[in-house]
């Protein structure tokens, strides 16, 4: 039996229906508020807000008055969006999933949020995040089964989209915080090339790798949002199917046996559909890459949180505090070497792509399905090298595990080739979904 916490709400058709009045804006908001009221006490995807529906209806009325002519409406007219509580949003406090005083976590609204407002979107509210976008979970549950993790750190954003609370949500990714929760919640998660969406107005975890992520239920919706949010977005014409590369070796061995078996089935489906797949030995030094990335994150966390941690160390939860303390021991020279490793890895991957004439990398989006319980958000190990290299990546829902929870296929594009990645992703998604 399907979970009552799941609902279909793809962004592209929802936005089109709202723009054209095929879906009436006020009833859309009222229906959404009723759904949130009936389900979110258990799901815990959104931060509580008094009089949410009253605020949204007032904002919707102003939007209708501003754009009475459907032909003049902006692309995200009336679309409700969830914003991870790492972003500053005018009119909302920021807690970053922490116990720090709200007065310490203030700032100007993130430009990506302002861009969404300019596109006609309405902010549904803040979504739950792990503490400081690291590994201490919030209260959010997986909408497929409340006894399982939704992933993290963008847990509330992924769960809210899967639950149909919003058709679009923003998250972040420092290791795997967009791709992994999207996979666990059975939706599309898109992490663009590092830097293509501005990170101003965001409480940073690790500035050298932090990337704004997009959650939707549909690839077309992710492309719509990305075209508005990403710097210098370009229309592309894709005639040929991409050649897919499998990074064989110790990297893939990090997935569970179930994850590897599922991936093999996904590859077989793609080959049957006519895709050419190249098996490329890659990432032989994955253990060194993993260590380098974690040292980079910890060192930069220690520097980002230096003032707050000095004042409020006792308010940080254990895993976050441990990461910051570890970062305090990392020398500036080692941090510089870790930062330099990003470009080195990207160059190595680009050389492999050219040598083997590959267009996209494919791999499991997570080692396996979501873990049981909400004391952990799962392992981001399958996302780490692509984040370290700053490459664009997308999760495509790709079937289910033996326990009935979703699995995902991670597809990674070339540096700054986000448009091609999203252009190819729709057809890939239609092959692997089942």
From TrEMBL:
MF (Gene Ontology): catalytic activity
Alphabetical list of Gene3D superfamilies matching this protein: Amidase signature (AS) domain
Domain Amidase: 29-422
SUPFAM superfamilies: Amidase signature (AS) enzymes (SSF75304)
Pfam families listed in its UniProt record: Amidase
Annotated protein name in UniProt: Amidase
């Amino acid at each position: 039996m399907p979970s009552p916490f799941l609902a279909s709400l793809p962004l592209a058709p929802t936005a089109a229906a709202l723009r054209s009045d095929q879906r009436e804006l006020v009833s859309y908001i009222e229906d959404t508020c009723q759904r949130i009221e009936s389900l979110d006490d258990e799901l815990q995807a959104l931060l509580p807000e008094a009089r949410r529906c009253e605020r949204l209806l007032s904002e919707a009325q102003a939007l209708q008055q501003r754009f009475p002519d459907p032909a003049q409406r902006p692309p995200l007219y009336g679309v409700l969006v969830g914003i991870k509580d790492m972003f500053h949003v005018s009119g909302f406090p920021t807690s970053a999933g922490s116990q720090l005083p709200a007065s310490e976590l203030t700032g100007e609204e993130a430009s990506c949020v302002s861009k969404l407002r300019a596109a006609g979107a309405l902010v549904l509210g803040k979504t739950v995040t792990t503490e400081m976008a690291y590994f201490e979970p919030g209260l959010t549950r997986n909408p497929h089964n409340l006894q399982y993790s939704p992933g993290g750190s963008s847990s509330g954003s992924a769960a809210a989209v899967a639950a149909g609370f919003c058709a679009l949500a923003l998250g972040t990714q420092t290791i795997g915080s967009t791709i992994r929760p999207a996979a666990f919640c059975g939706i599309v998660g898109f992490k663009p090339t590092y830097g293509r969406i501005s990170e101003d107005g965001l409480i940073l975890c690790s500035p050298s790798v932090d990337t704004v992520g997009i959650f939707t239920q549909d690839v077309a919706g992710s492309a719509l949002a990305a075209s508005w949010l990403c710097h210098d977005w370009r229309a592309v014409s894709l005639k040929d199917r991409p050649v897919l590369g499998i990074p064989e070796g110790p990297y893939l061995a990090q997935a569970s046996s179930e994850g590897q078996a599922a991936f093999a089935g996904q590859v077989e489906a793609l080959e049957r559909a006519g895709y050419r797949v190249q098996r490329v030995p890659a990432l032989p030094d994955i253990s060194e890459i993993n260590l380098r990335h974690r040292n980079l994150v910890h060192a930069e966390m220690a520097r980002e949180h230096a003032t707050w941690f000095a004042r409020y160390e006792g308010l940080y939860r254990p895993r976050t505090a441990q990461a910051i303390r570890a970062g305090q021991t990392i020398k500036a020279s080692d941090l510089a070497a870790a930062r330099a490793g990003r470009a080195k890895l990207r160059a190595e991957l680009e050389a492999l792509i050219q040598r083997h004439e590959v267009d996209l990398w494919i791999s499991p989006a997570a080692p396996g399905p979501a873990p049981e319980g909400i004391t952990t958000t799962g392992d981001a190990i399958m996302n780490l090298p692509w984040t370290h290299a700053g490459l664009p990546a997308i999760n495509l829902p790709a079937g289910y595990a033996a326990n009935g929870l979703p699995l995902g296929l991670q597809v990674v594009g070339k540096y700054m080739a986000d448009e091609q990645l999203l252009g190819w992703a729709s057809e890939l998604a239609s092959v692997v979904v089942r």
